[in-house]
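This section describes the prediction task in plain terms. A model, or a person checking by hand, is given the sequence of a single protein chain and must write out its three-dimensional structure as a string of tokens. No templates, partner chains or ligands are provided. The sample shown here is typical of the held-out split.
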Amino acid sequence: MTRREWLRAGLGLLAGTQVLLGLWILLLPELFWKWRWVSHLPPYNEHLLRDFGGASLALAVVLCAAVAAMERRLVVTALVAYLVASVSHLVFHAQHLEPLAAASGAGFMALLGAAVVLPSALLWLASDAAAFRPSGHSEPEAPDRRG
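The expected answer:
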């Protein structure tokens, strides 16, 4: 696979996870709350959960636009936005692992860590301008300056 194809696939994966998460939280907030990695937090608050679900879907919209356009600024912006959310989410949960069993906490941290590592790797792929050229297109050759 080319860098462009890896980048598009990774963006699509991030977008898909945000769509699933957002819909789950918006449509079934109480079921999401009962998930063992969430239920140990402060009391259930439907308003905050629905806001989180809406924000997840909003991020999915930006990621989907990046997948469709494959324009460098939009891709980088979408990935940085995803990282801002993922890093803050990881930091919060890393500070609130006490109620979880060690294995459960380790699994949770691995999942949240992957949500930081994947977009970071995609940002690295996005640093190469070639990732934004359609397959089969190469850089135009420099004009021959011999006189």
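For orientation: The mean pLDDT is 92.
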